[in-house]
Amino acid sequence: IDGREFKATVVGVDSATDLALLKIEPSGDIPVVALGDSDELEVGDWTIAIGNPFNLPGTFTVGVVSAKSRGDQVGAPYQNFIQTDTAINPGNSGGPLVNIKGEVVGINTMIYTRTGGSLGIGFAIPVNIAKNIVNSLLKTGRFERGYIGIFPGAIDDRMRLALKLPAETGVMINSVLADGPAARAGLKDGDVVLEIAGKKVGNVPQLMRIVAEIPVGTMVPFTIQREWKRLVVMVGVVKRPDDEKIAQNRKPGDPATGEWLGLRVAPLAALSPLQLRQLGVEAGEK
Fold first, then answer.
1. Going by DSSP bridges, is the β-strand pair 150-153/258-260 parallel, antiparallel, or unpaired?
2. Of 76, 63, 58, nearest to 121 (Cα)?
């Protein structure tokens, strides 16, 4: 804001969230902003975007939180974007999203547009996610995501009714990788994950984010439902391997192996007896 420029060195980068930690060595004091708690945001809360849209420095725009927990919908499974109608345009990327207390609650990162300008649908990285990643980059220069070796699947309303689960509750384990952390802990195909370390699990992206944010080497309790019985299983979280290695470890007939035009399909013969019963399908049907 005061026109000063600084040389910066890159401490670390997390490409999955498009975040980087930079180090500068200023002479004299520099202004700082307070970080808020993005988990406290509610739909309808006022937000302010500050940035340099179209090279217009110090632009200030106002709107509200339109939605929360956007990620998988925009092709970013490890994100948990704040959606806002606060005007965000080219040049705002990296600028702060601020609440009415003046606290930074997000980092403006992208917009949905057909014109190149704001259409009232912008996205910001929640500051709580940024805090977690920045702390790791500061310590080690990288951010390691947790991994347990499962292929999760969504539960539809019909399956949820059969399992007697509340709405927006539970994620099915379609497949457990052999010799992975989940397999060693005793998790099985067809188990339904309800909670991880006390956090309720309602959909696949949420499960992926919770596991990814667990520190590598940690043992965490998984509350699951198996054959209509609830169990708690302790699972050790390891460092997530790259996607190519994960694909190589898939089992033959894995329900998550067939993917075409965004659809994942599997032969009924690849499903467990419990999964067949949940779908109302008799064994041997095609």
1. unpaired
2. 63
pLDDT digits (tens, 9 = 90+) for 8-56: 999 999 888 889 999 999 888 888 899 999 999 999 999 999 988 888 8
pTM of the model: 0.68
Q: Which of the 8 DSSP states describes residue 142? A: S
Per residue in 105-128, pLDDT (tens digit) is: 999 988 888 777 888 899 999 999
C-alpha 276: how far from its chain's center? 29
State how far the Cα of 107 lies from the Cα of 280, in Å rounded to an integer: 46
SS3 content of the chain, % helix, strand, coil (to 5): 20, 35, 45
Cα first-last separation, the chain = 66
Collect all residues with Cβ–Cβ distance below 8 Å to 180 and sequence separation of at least 6.
148, 149, 150, 249
Residue in 131, 125, 119, 17 with CA at minimum distance from that of residue 63: 119
**268/283 Cα distance (integer angstroms):** 8
Whether residue 234 contacts residue 221, with contact meaning beta carbons closer than 8 Å, is answered with: yes
Measured in whole angstroms, the distance separating CA 81 from the mean position of its chain's CA atoms is: 8
Are the beta carbons of 169 and 194 closer than 8 angstroms? yes
Q: Which of 169, 226, 175, 173 is nearest to 199 (CA)?
A: 169
